[in-house]
Amino acid sequence: MAKTLPKTDVVIVGVGWAGGIIASELTKKGLSVVGLERGKERKTEDYFMVHDELRYALRYEMMQDLSKETITFRSNEGVRALPMRQYGSFLIGDGLGGAGVHWNGQTYRFLPYDFEIRSKTIEKYGKGKIPPEMTIQDWGITYDELEPYYDQFEKMAGIAGEENPLGGKRSGPYPLSPMKQTEGIKLFMDATKRMKLNPYMMPSANLPEAYTNPDGIERAGCQYCGYCERFGCEYGAKADPVVTVIPVANGTGKFQIRTHSDVRRILHKGGKATGVMYVDVTTGEEIVQPADIVVVTSYVFNNVRLLLMSQLGKPYDPASGSGVVGKNYAYQVIKGAAVGFFDDKQFNTYAGAGSLGASIDDYNGDNFDHSSLNFIHGGVVSLSQTGARPIQSNRVPSGTAGWGKDFKAQSIHYANRTLAVGTQGASMAYKHHFLDLDPTYKDAYGDPLMRITFDFEEQDRELAKYLSERCSEIVKEMGASKVDFLKELGPYEIMSYQSTHNTGGVIMGGDPSNSAVNNYSQMWDADNVFVIGASSFPQNGGYNPTDTVGALAYRAAEGILKYREKGGMLV
C-alpha cells in the first residue's frame, strides 16, 4: 500500500528548465512546492575538468537509461513499432536540470508567424496551400503576448546576442552583447551580406562575460572550451536550471527536491487533480504526494505518457481526428546541410561554445515568398562553432575512401579546413503523426512505453532540398574549394542524430476540441493541472525550442498564481 505524505501547495513533475522556473517563481511568492525528479542530484562541481568525450558524448552519461525505459517507434500505422535500444536521432536527458544541463545554449525566439501559422498562411496563400492531412494550428497566443515572458527568460539566463533584423519586435535588447566572432563566423557574415541577406550573431546562453541576473545569481564567463552539448558546464557559464533558477527556489526555504522519484500517475477525481503517485527508486516504495496544484514539466514523451497512463484528457484518435493528448507530434527536418572544404584556409574549430555562431532568417518562417514552392515555412540557417571534439570530428570530401591511405591523407589535410553551414527546418504537424501508448512493450513497472508514429513528408523533402541548396550557395560564397550538401531527404530513421527537438502531444490552443491546454498551459480537462514544455507546441518552428519553453514557463507561473487566487479556467 502506498504511503501518503502531507499535502503541499504545488507538486512539480520533472525539475528541468520549466520545473525550475515554476519552482523559483512560486516559492518567491510564498507557495510550498515539492519537485519530483526521477534522476539524480546534480551540481557544477560534478563537471570540474571532465572533458571526456567518450563518456559523455558517445556513451551518453547524462541521458535516460534505455535499458529501463525507452520509446518505441514506427514510420506508419501499418508496421509494428520497435523499441529504441540505443541512442540515435535524439537524446532524452535524465537527472536534476534535465536536458537544460546538456544543451548547447542556442536561444532563439520563435517568429510571430509561428504562433499564427494557419491563419497567416491561409490569409496570404489561401487554404489550398495547406495539404488536407496537415494539422497545423494557431497557438492561441501571439508573439506580442508572449514577448514579455521571452524577455524575462533571457534576463534570467543572461542571453548574449543582437537583434534579429527579421525577427519579432523586442521590448528591450539582450542583457549581454554577442560572443566573439571567429574567422569562420566572419566569413559567414561577410558572405551573407554580399548576398544581400541579413546575418546576426546567434543568441547565446553561454555568457561572454561575468553576469549577475535579476535574482542576484552570479555566473562566470565562457572559456570557449567546446564542451557544451552533451556536457555540463564546469564554469557555470552556460545557463542551466541547476545554476540559475533552482538555487533561487532553494533559497526561499519553500522548495523541496526529491530526486530518484519516478512519477507514475497523476491522481484525480471529479475533474480535479488530487496529487501524484510516485516510486522512490532507491527503495521501490510507492508514495502519494497530495497537492492543490499539479504541474507537469518533464520531457515531451514523459508529459504525454503520464497523462495517458493517468487517463487525464482525451487520447488522440488519428482515424477520426478526435481527442487531443498525443496529437500533433513533430520533430525537426534537418540539422546539417552543407560542408565546405577550404584548401587555402585553416580554422581553429576545436575551440568553441554551444551557441557560438551566426545566423540568417531570410529562409525562415514566411520571410520569403512561398507562392511557387511546394512547402510552407523554412528554417534558420547558421554557421555555428560548437567545438570540433576529436573523436566525432573527421570530415572528408564525398568520394573519399572510407579507409586506407587516401582516407588518412584527406583526414589530416582537412582536419582544420572545414566549415559547415546548417539549418533547422520547421516540422509541420500531420494527422497521422502522433504519440500513444504501445500495446506490446512495457517498462520496468509493467506500464506501456510511449510509441511514436512519424515519418518525413513531401513537405519536409521539399523544404530540406530548398534549404540545403541555400546553404551550399553560402558556403561557395565563403570561398570553399569543395562543397558537399544534402541532395535529397530520405525516410526518417531513428538511428542518426539530428536534434533533441521533439514537440507536441499536449498542444496549446484556444479551443478545447483541438488542444489540451490553454495559453497559460492549463489543462482544459482539469483546471488545477498545468503541463509545460515543448509538448505544448502545435507544430515545430525553424529554431531550437528552449527560449519558447522558458517563456511559456514564466507565463504559466503567472497563471498558476492567478489560479491560486481565484480558481477556474484562466483567460
From TrEMBL:
Gene3D superfamilies the UniProt entry points to: FAD/NAD(P)-binding domain
Annotated Glucose-methanol-choline oxidoreductase C-terminal domain residues: 439-553
Keywords from the UniProt entry: FAD, Flavoprotein, Oxidoreductase
Entry-linked InterPro entries: FAD/NAD-bd_sf (IPR036188), GMC_OxRdtase_N (IPR000172), GMC_OxRtase_C (IPR007867)
Organism of provenance: Paenibacillus chungangensis
Protein name: GMC family oxidoreductase
Domain Glucose-methanol-choline oxidoreductase N-terminal, chain residue ranges per copy: 220-330
UniProt record similarity statement: Belongs to the GMC oxidoreductase family.
